[in-house]
Specification:
The chain has a seven-stranded parallel β-sheet, sandwiched between helices. The chain is built from 15 helices and 13 strands. It starts with a strand and ends with a helix. It has 366 residues and is an alpha/beta fold. The protein folds into two domains: 173 residues, Rossmann fold; 178 residues, 3-Layer(aba) Sandwich (Rossmann fold). It is globular. α6 packs across α10.
Length: 366
């Protein structure tokens, strides 16, 4: 049997990169001899993370359009043309059997180049509201793997496969880790634990909301695992040092997310696709604070999909400084509501997503 050759394109954030690597790993599990090439955007985090995972990656000079008027936007058409030409060269030289797009800047040029050479393409749409690039690419795509229902409002129904979003498998196996997790974060077992996560870069609103109520939280019967992100760690540490709460663990990054979820009784999070998929697998009661600074406000739409299923609570970004901690303190004391949210969010989990997407990718190879 001929060796299978697959390109996976996209990235820009961990929300695109980690699912892409999970898909590649699932393909390798089924076909260890498969040759997999990643295509990302120059200067973005995939250029480090993908080689660390053991895969080759080539960068395109593509960048996004800035929302505010800036001279950088003048360079966009030139970067796009250069990226399209380079993507065509990559496709011509690598000769893939199938090309996969996971979202992010590099997906567009690469999938366009593959589709124009009649190479089967698959789109993995992570959000509940499809972005413009994926809507355009869908016309030529053979398969579109989605994580939310009712996506036929954006894509042809016959191409859609409901697979969910791939996540790290260690998050699906938390049941035996509670004591190890509490010890890891130096927390006790006699008070509920709240996990606050704003992504690797951090979320200003979440951090400001915690800082504004830090004295109140220090005296409350709860414990906090507070991941600030690297951009906001210094200001959060200053606030932490001023109060010195014994019930708060604070850092810019969490090396063991599986233990953070295992320790948590309630989670406060942004509503990116990867975060929501992890919460669904972990089965934790969650308060979602969608970021307003994303394309087509897709985080709010992601969050509302859970709220309508009675699987999470929502606090809007503009209200968070005032309402987030009071909402948290109310939820911590409502056992029945926590159980309902936990049960309902677990029903939305797709623990087998990476394997299902890998099978769809392989099925497109002639």
């Amino acid at each position: 049997m001929a060796q299978k050759r697959i390109i996976i394109s996209g990235g820009g954030t961990g929300g695109h990169i980690y699912p892409a690597i999970a898909i590649a790993n699932a393909i390798r599990q089924q076909h260890p001899e498969a040759e997999i090439l990643f295509v990302g955007a120059e200067g973005k985090m995939e250029m480090q993370k993908v080689p660390q995972a053991g895969y080759q990656i080539i960068g395109l000079p593509i960048a996004g359009i800035q929302r505010k008027l800036t001279l950088k936007n003048l360079a966009f058409p030139f970067k796009l043309i250069k990226s399209l030409l380079k993507a065509r060269q990559i496709v011509r030289e690598f000769r893939p059997d199938v090309a996969v797009g996971v979202g992010g800047y590099a997906s567009g040029p690469l999938l366009y180049a593959a589709g124009s050479r009649n190479i089967p393409t698959l789109i993995q749409e992570q959000n509940s509201y499809a972005g413009l690039t994926n809507k355009l690419l869908a016309k030529r795509a053979r398969r579109i793997c989605v994580a939310y229902p009712d996506m036929d409002q954006f894509f042809p129904k016959d191409k859609i496969r409901m697979t969910g979003n791939p996540v790290r498998q260690d998050i699906a196996q938390l049941t035996q880790k509670k004591q190890e997790a509490l010890a890891f974060f130096n927390l006790s077992s006699d008070k509920p634990v709240v996990l606050v996560i704003g992504g690797s870069l951090g979320a200003r609103t979440l951090n400001d909301s915690i800082k504004a109520h830090l004295k109140e939280l220090a005296g409350a019967p709860v414990q906090l695992i507070w991941q600030t992100g690297k951009f906001y760690f210094e200001s959060c540490k200053i606030a932490f040092d001023a109060v010195k709460p014994r019930n708060v663990w604070v850092n810019d990054f969490i090396t063991r997310m599986d233990l953070a979820y295992a320790a948590a009784d309630v989670v406060i999070s942004r509503a990116g696709a990867l975060s929501i998929s992890e919460l669904c697998l972990a089965g934790k009661p969650a308060i979602l604070v969608p970021s307003p600074n994303v394309a087509e406000d897709h985080q709010t739409k992601n969050a509302l999909a859970l709220v309508h299923a009675h699987a999470a609570l929502l606090v809007r970004d503009a209200d968070a400084r005032e309402k987030l901690v009071p909402t948290l303190m109310h939820l911590v004391n409502e056992e029945r509501v926590k159980q309902e949210l936990s049960l309902n969010i677990l029903h939305l989990g797709k623990p087998d997503a990476a394997r299902q997407i890998a099978e769809e990718v392989l099925s497109l190879i002639r």
